[in-house]
């Protein structure tokens, strides 16, 4: 069987000739894209309860992501356990202790739950950040920096108050004096409840 000439198509049963449509030239190949940065992303719940997303759906269904957002893990780093014993601490107090440990590596001791006449330490609502050489210029400066850091992050930490070198601090600044605490920074939080063990604390 012979093929028809490329320039024409002969209709079966008719004596009509027409020219074939020109073949379009192949589209130019775009240049390769530059390598994208290697971002490490995770999907976390939006709103106050953040954690890894569970996007399991039934076969044939699509997952709705309206209540999820993508978090850049390169920016939002998980905090490792710090120098404080976390036994009996509430979640906001753990967040403060881990954050202080990460930001101020010169801190070697943070006290947490202990017996006390007031409920803050026994209930896991407070930590004591022990300052090395607390009466030295360096020690005083370090304590001041920790208080400033906690006040700056007061909302995230659920900060209720801090006490350092006789001064009582609230999220709005200093209030009153004569409160002791010359060798450590006392930090009280609103707690946030006791951990379940599934929490991830972010810097």
**Main beta-sheet annotation:** 6 strands, antiparallel
For the largest beta sheet, what order do the strands appear in spatially? Answer: 5-6-10-7-8-9
The arrangement of helices and strands along the chain is EEEEHEEHHEEEE
Average pLDDT confidence is 76
InterPro entries: ARB_07466-like_C
Domain ARB-07466-like C-terminal: 86-179
Pfam families: VldE
Protein name: ARB-07466-like C-terminal domain-containing protein
Characterise this structure.
With 203 residues, this protein is an alpha+beta fold. It has a domain at 91-189. It contains 3 helices and 10 strands. The chain has a 6-stranded antiparallel sheet. Strands 1-2 form a two-stranded antiparallel ribbon. The longest helix is centred in the C-terminal third of the chain and has 16 residues, at 137-152. Mean pLDDT is 76; it is low at 4-18 and 27-74. This is ARB-07466-like C-terminal domain-containing protein. Pfam families: VldE.
Keywords:
203 residues; alpha+beta; two-stranded antiparallel ribbon; 16% helix; globular
What is this entry, summarized?
With about 200 residues, the protein is an alpha+beta fold. The chain is about 15% helix and about 20% strand.
């Amino acid at each position: 069987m012979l093929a028809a000439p490329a320039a024409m198509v002969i209709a079966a049963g008719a004596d009509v000739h027409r020219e074939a449509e020109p073949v379009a030239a192949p589209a130019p190949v775009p240049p390769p894209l530059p390598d994208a940065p290697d971002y490490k992303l995770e999907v976390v719940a939006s709103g106050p309860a953040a954690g890894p997303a569970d996007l399991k759906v039934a076969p044939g269904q699509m997952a709705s992501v309206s209540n999820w957002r993508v978090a850049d893990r390169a920016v939002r780093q998980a905090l490792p356990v710090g120098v404080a014993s976390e036994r009996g601490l509430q979640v906001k107090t753990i967040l403060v202790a881990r954050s202080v440990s990460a930001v101020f590596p010169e801190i070697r001791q943070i006290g947490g739950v202990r017996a006390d006449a007031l409920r803050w330490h026994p209930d896991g609502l407070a930590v004591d950040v022990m300052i090395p050489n607390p009466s030295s210029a360096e020690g005083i400066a370090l304590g001041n920096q920790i208080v400033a850091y906690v006040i700056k992050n007061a909302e995230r930490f659920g900060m209720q108050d801090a006490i350092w070198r006789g001064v009582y601090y609230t999220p709005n600044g200093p209030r009153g004096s004569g409160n002791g605490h010359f060798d450590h920074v006392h930090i009280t939080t609103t707690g946030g409840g006791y951990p379940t063990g599934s929490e991830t604390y972010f810097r």
